[in-house]
Design a protein that fits this description.
single chain, alpha/beta, 21 helices
Amino acid sequence: MNVHANLQKKTKISLALLFLVCNLLLLCWYLFVGYKSAFHSDSAAKVLLAREIVETGQYFPRDWNYVNGELFVLFGHTFIIPLLAFMPAGYLSHAISGLISAVLILSGVWFLTGLTQVSISRRIFLVAIVASGISGFMAENLYGQVSYGVFVYFSCYILFFSYRFLRAGQKQGKYYGLALFCVLCLAVWSNPQRSVMFFCIPIIAAIAWYMLGLTRTEFSEQKKTAWYSIAIVFAGVMLGTALHSVTLAGFNNDVASLHAYWLPYNLMLRNAITIPESLLALFGGLPTADGEVVSKIGIYEAARLAAGLTLLGLIPYSIHASLRQKGNGIAFLAAFAFTALVGVLFVQITTTVPKDNPILISRYFVPSLVLSLILTLSQKPDWSKMPIVSLSIAAVAACFLTSAYPAFVEMGISSKFDRSVSVQRHNDLDGLKDFLLENGLHYGYAKFWNAGVLSVLSDEKLLVRQIVIDHGLPKPDRWLSSNRWYRPGAWQGETFLILTAQEEQEKEAVDWGLLELYNCKPIRKLSFAGCKVFVFPHNLAKYLSGWDIR
């Protein structure tokens, strides 16, 4: 019997490792090849910031323009900085940074699953599922842009260190406590407001629920440790907040979209109705509108929709079942995930945060949904008493375990499948990049979504700085940019201005007569794929007012 059990255990571990290796290989392909076609200027910002740090010698560059109080403390740019000693600030450096971030995410998931007391094979399967990307939209946020992958690994490590602190003896406990304090401090230092909702309130709720689940004797023994853990959380929050305030003091900080406002009741209802759509998008469960149902992709989309809807039902069931256990790791995780999920739901429904694009803003759900997914798939199956629940969990696990190829190769960041004959493997701006270089151009200006991405894709052979057109004149767009880019000394020689056909037709199009009055008359006009490139004999920053704000 023991021989059979050991053989079965080894078989499960081998199968789990096989899926993990396959998903990791596809993840690496996505980071170094696949994501390049979806690479955009938001993703490019961390590469450009890393270059700014290297050039200025300041980890928080004084000329950088931060947005919504969001400081880049421990982010993807951190891993790019040492790379710039021997490679350009290009896409390869971005991919290597993404790989390091992926290691942090997956290692965090591995440590977190250790708290749930599931088998080794189940833990490997769970890591493989998170490594699959789950959907195109989830993969973009976890591994492509890594914007919310950071919140995932912070959540995992905060949960791990805090639970270990509660359970460890005095000797080991001080190390877990110190680690918890450092991680919380780093998280809050980046953005206190988001950290309170994503980490601080959930971890306090998890500690409180853990203590309520103890027996009277256990409670008396661990009461002191619990108070210490709460004190560590508050100390991390206080120091992180103080560091954030001190660091941001005197910096350029655009808070245009920082403030949220309450919505009237009818708009709250509108937001509530869109929540299921947002969650299904993250899980890749939204079929392509007008897509053919009776087809290979149509049938697979039906399976994804069924898996997504099933998961949305399993999450509240799993949270409820886990919270009832009390006093163990899975209840600790459930309390954290539930509090984080409810916090985001409250903000999404009642405030102006979602604006007019609920699917795009659904990225705020990524950390709590990843934790909820881990919690759901960690449930112990009971085939005799709850066969339907057990079968549903197994089906959802199988769907997401095999998601790597669809998520990384066939889905876009909208989590919709590419139904075309050939899948694009290059960025839309690659052609424009090559065209500009062929015409001997190296420094210029364009709208945000065409600027940073061109700089990074060209390995810095092109430097394109973001601008807006205001009252007929190009002006710096200082959102996630450096003031140094807009000074006359930033570049000597020809510069260019890229305008798309749509931008030329907009009411805020360039007033060429006014521009000439500033001695900025183009000497060449080039066209490429719907873009007009206007070449000037000098740097526009030398003549246009308001660019150099020193």
